[in-house]
Backbone:
């Protein structure tokens, strides 16, 4: 029970401070899930993000379900998911009920401009951490650059790039392994 | 009856939205045309509010719609509809992943997927940076290159990065502080 409450609270914290969509929650997840609670490793998070990218639904929800399940099975999955969406539910209902033109309020706009700068800083730091862990060789760096260019400059949907990266990963490794074996036989 | 319909409409949205966030938009337009639960103007408002509040955009949209139509129960039902498909699908995928995690082909695929993940997050970072550091509107009006860059925001960003690297506290602290700095500097 204690662990379920912890899951709910941790993911509610993540949900309450994620400005700017699923990717912006990465620095928060690294802190909460990887560093302070050790519920998952940095590599696990990467896998969840990649899978969340090519399965339906919201990335934040997908990641919460993954981590919750790993920790506490079905109950954990449900509790973590409830946690991540809880702040949004409350905040949006309050705004809808009481505030008109919320995003036009000057101090809200200024605060958000500041928060956006912070999100860039936090996510940039998260990307550098992840790149160190996931770009293990030259081929991975090539995949990284190719996907960045492709997703920036073409209209091909993101999940197609993710699937392609998986296939290329298999091809590179299979070819690499057979080459090594060939070398060993010689 | 309205609850069943709300649940079903958002269930479909959750099931077919791949990649999250703004990918829900086409579904909302379709829902608008079909049900008349909200206006097109409402959708634009929802996007603005979602961008200025924390949390996943899809959840914000579902909450707004459900709440407008049927109060708190409506909001709960709509969000429940939205997340049901994700939760079921992820539970299935996680089971499969557990079984095949040691399979070398799955590991090979993950090697490629992690590089892709890093790339997509880098892109998300660039997109936010563009909004945070550039004054697109001001530049298109004046045409002066000095108007394109929000110098205050850039300097603030550099200082914040250095402080973050040195102190390494919980991200929430920096987000709150940055909000205050934004108000003080009128960013």
Residues:
């Amino acid at each position: 029970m204690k662990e379920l409450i912890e899951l709910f609270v941790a993911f509610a914290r993540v949900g309450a401070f994620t400005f700017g969509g699923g990717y912006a929650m990465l620095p928060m997840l690294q802190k909460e899930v990887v560093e302070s609670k050790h519920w998952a490793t940095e590599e696990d998070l990467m896998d969840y993000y990649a899978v969340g990218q090519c399965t339906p639904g919201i990335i934040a929800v997908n990641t919460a379900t993954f981590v919750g399940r790993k920790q506490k099975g079905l109950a954990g999955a449900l509790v973590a998911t409830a946690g991540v969406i809880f702040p949004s539910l409350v905040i949006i209902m309050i705004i809808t009920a009481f505030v008109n033109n919320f995003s036009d309020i000057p101090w809200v706009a200024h605060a958000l401009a500041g928060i956006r700068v912070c999100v860039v800083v936090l996510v940039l730091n998260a990307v550098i951490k992840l790149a160190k862990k996931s770009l293990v060789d030259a081929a991975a760096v090539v995949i990284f650059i190719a996907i960045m260019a492709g997703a920036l400059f073409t209209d091909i949907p993101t999940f197609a790039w993710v699937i392609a990266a998986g296939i290329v990963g298999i091809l590179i490794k299979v070819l690499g392994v057979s080459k090594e074996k060939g070398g060993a036989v010689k | 009856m309205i609850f069943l319909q709300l649940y079903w409409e958002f269930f479909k949205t959750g099931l077919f939205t791949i990649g999250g966030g703004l990918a829900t938009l086409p579904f909302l337009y379709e829902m608008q045309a079909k049900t008349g639960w909200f206006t097109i103007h409402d959708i634009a408002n929802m996007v603005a509010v979602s961008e200025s509040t924390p949390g996943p955009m899809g959840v914000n949209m579902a909450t707004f719609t459900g709440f407008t139509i049927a109060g708190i129960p409506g909001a709960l039902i709509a969000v429940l509809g939205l997340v049901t498909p994700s939760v079921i699908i992820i539970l299935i995928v996680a089971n499969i992943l557990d079984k095949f995690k040691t399979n070398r082909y799955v590991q090979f695929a993950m090697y490629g997927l992690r590089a892709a993940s890093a790339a997509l997050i880098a892109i998300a970072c660039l997109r936010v940076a563009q909004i945070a550091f550039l004054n697109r509107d001001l530049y298109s009006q004046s045409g002066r290159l000095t108007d394109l860059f929000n110098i205050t925001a850039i300097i603030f960003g550099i200082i914040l990065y250095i402080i973050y690297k040195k102190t390494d506290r919980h991200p929430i602290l920096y987000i709150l502080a940055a909000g205050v700095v934004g108000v003080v500097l009128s960013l």
Summary: Chain A has two domains: 2-133, 135-186. Chain A has seven helices and no strands.
